[in-house]
């Protein structure tokens, strides 16, 4: 712990020395002239100016001499009876070089955007790395998104290339990814070629000229490739994330700072050792997968389990089977998975040893005390430290978390900031709360290397979303409590972002989808607590004609949300009302409907200033009916 304090103090007093030393442990084609430049007022911060590098040389090439035959990925298929694949660092290097050469031969160049829509297979990691190798910017779209959502993202980033696969089984669900891509690309005239991995031999349509099999792209390609020299601030990837307003933002990360931060935080938070077997259950389609399934672990020469399946297939003991089978030492998952397992009783632990486990991690949403204790007892057998890691797509890597086995933990606290990170709590007026014991909105005072640099194509939106609320501070959108020990406990979003099973969902996006229904003239979506998912969506609709059949309406709305976003964004509750409470300026008062939906109608406060206070009584009655008998 003393070492942490010293490192933290140095990182704040002498950030250039601190981060320069961390960066020294990586491989550079040219050194930086300056560690940090710019600030939060102009939102022009940069890291490692003038340095040149390629992140994949750091992930792959520099390990080959010592670790070439070490396994980089253990691929665990959806079906436990199917063969496991072991991909060594040599194999991974060869696969990345061949695809990099293949993509180059197709005409993909530095700075081009490539959209990736793939199942959890080693080739997904290979795709990211092959893009990074040639300097193309990858934009991964999670495999649960709909055709419309893919199209929106492809067009926003002006991607000319796509990489996908025929499809996948997740549990007993068959997903034909290629046909979803085909539908999406009807709306994307800019896409020239689609590389298609034949993963499951599904019967799909290959459009001549546009579609090319992965195996044809890499055929005859060399197993070596001269990695393109990237500038420190050249874009590495775009990853779309939901905010409180409008369409999803293409969060932009650049090369050197992201690399240094992903590698540093992976090594330190998990206290990774060379003989560890690391397993993060996140999909590579989210930021956790980017930073802690691909870049962080590979930068550290780790061996990772890459799991194609789901926790419930073929039964709820699957995760523990995988832990025992591969002797997993570090296990990193989301509270929603922990609560879902907890709800299944203890039966699924029968016959499972879990003795290989050394460190447990949690990410994506606040972990409640009960789930924390259950995880600690039943999975960690009270012997494994839990690292509750708080961070965001925008932060690139973990900002607040214990260092495994070093920082004393407290259930539901993400504990202390990592070196280089200065959290501050502010009140609604933007005053910094200086006393230790405080609660407010969480901001960060100074840039760290892994911080996002922009929103793709819209720097003004980047500034207005994160740097305009509190001058000179990065605003996270989260509420937070700090205790007498200076420990941080994240309490959840303070904006209109809802975290359902660790998936970030913007209410505006769901409302836009529901508004497409011909009978809906107005709607509002709020998040309410859910025992397993953390939060779930509660939708209010005001209709032109009184809906005759709520089950039918609910089905139609589910279909719309699945089409526009993905089925994970479907509301759990639907309530038809004659109108929504509004301010005199016409703004929907979500706070009021949220309180009612949360089952606290007495806590809505003063409603006399509303334009239409009369709707509130009706909403209370309708909500009570819906909660008793949810139609969805
Ligand atoms: C990594 C990730 C970010 C939002 C963030 C929080 C919530 C994430 C924790 C957490 C409490 C945690 N990126 N969040 N981790 N809340 N404790 N350990 O999830 O961009 O998809 O979401 O998730 O609200 O702002 S994300």
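Sequence proposed for the structure above (632 residues):
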């Amino acid at each position: 712990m003393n070492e942490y304090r010293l490192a933290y103090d140095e990182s704040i007093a002498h950030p250039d020395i601190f981060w320069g030393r961390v960066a020294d442990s990586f491989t550079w084609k040219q050194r930086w002239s300056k560690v940090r430049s710019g600030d939060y007022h102009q939102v022009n911060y940069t890291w490692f100016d003038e340095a040149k590098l390629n992140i994949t040389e750091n992930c792959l090439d520099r390990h080959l001499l010592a670790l070439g035959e070490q396994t980089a990925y253990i691929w665990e298929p959806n079906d436990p009876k199917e063969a496991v694949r072991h991909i060594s660092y040599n194999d991974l290097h060869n696969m990345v070089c061949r695809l990099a050469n293949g993509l180059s031969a197709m005409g993909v160049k530095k700075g081009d955007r490539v959209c990736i829509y793939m199942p959890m297979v080693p080739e997904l990691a290979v795709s990211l790395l092959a893009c990074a190798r040639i300097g193309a910017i990858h934009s991964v779209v999670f495999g649960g998104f709909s055709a419309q959502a893919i199209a929106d993202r492809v067009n926003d980033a002006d991607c000319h290339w796509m990489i996908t696969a025929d499809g996948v089984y997740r549990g007993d669900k068959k997903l034909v990814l290629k046909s979803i891509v085909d539908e999406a690309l009807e709306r994307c005239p800019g896409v020239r070629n689609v590389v298609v991995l034949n993963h499951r031999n599904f019967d799909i349509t290959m459009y001549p000229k546009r579609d090319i099999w992965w195996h044809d792209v890499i055929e005859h390609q060399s197993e070596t490739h001269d990695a393109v020299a990237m500038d420190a601030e050249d874009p590495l990837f775009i990853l779309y994330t939901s905010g409180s307003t409008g369409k999803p933002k293409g969060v932009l990360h650049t090369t050197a700072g992201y690399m240094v931060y992903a590698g540093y935080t992976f090594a330190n938070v998990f206290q990774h050792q060379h003989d560890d077997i690391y397993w993060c259950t996140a999909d590579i389609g989210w930021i956790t997968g980017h930073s802690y399934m691909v870049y962080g672990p590979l930068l550290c020469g780790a061996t990772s389990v890459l799991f194609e399946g789901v926790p419930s297939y073929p039964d709820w003991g699957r995760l523990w089977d995988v832990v025992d089978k591969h002797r997993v030492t570090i296990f990193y998952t989301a509270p929603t998975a922990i609560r879902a397992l907890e709800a299944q009783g203890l039966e699924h632990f029968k016959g499972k040893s879990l003795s290989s486990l050394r460190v447990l991690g949690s990410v994506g949403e606040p972990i409640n005390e009960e789930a924390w204790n259950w995880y600690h007892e039943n999975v960690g057998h009270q012997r494994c430290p839990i690292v509750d890691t708080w961070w965001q797509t925008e932060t690139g890597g973990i900002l607040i978390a214990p260092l495994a086995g070093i920082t004393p933990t407290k259930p539901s606290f993400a504990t202390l900031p990592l070196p280089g990170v200065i959290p501050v709590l502010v009140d609604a007026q933007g005053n910094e709360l200086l006393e230790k014991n405080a609660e407010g909105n969480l901001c960060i005072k100074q840039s760290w290397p892994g911080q996002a640099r922009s929103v793709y194509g819209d720097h003004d939106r980047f500034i207005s979303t994160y740097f305009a609320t509190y001058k000179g501070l990065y605003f996270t959108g989260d509420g937070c409590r700090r205790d007498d020990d200076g420990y941080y406990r994240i309490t959840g979003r303070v904006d209109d972002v809802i975290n359902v099973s660790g998936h970030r969902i913007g209410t505006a996006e769901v409302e836009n989808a529901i508004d497409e229904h011909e009978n809906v003239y107005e709607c509002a979506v709020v998040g309410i607590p859910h025992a397993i998912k953390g939060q779930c969506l509660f939708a209010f609709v005001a209709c032109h004609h009184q809906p005759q059949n709520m089950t039918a309406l609910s089905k139609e709305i589910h279909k719309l949300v699945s089409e526009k976003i993905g089925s994970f964004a479907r509301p759990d509750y639907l309530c038809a009302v004659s109108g929504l409470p509004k301010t005199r300026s016409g703004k929907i008062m979500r706070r009021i409907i949220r309180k009612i939906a949360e089952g606290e109608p007495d806590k809505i406060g003063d409603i006399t200033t509303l334009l239409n206070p009369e709707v509130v009584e009706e909403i209370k009655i309708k909500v009570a009916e819906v909660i008793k008998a949810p139609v969805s």
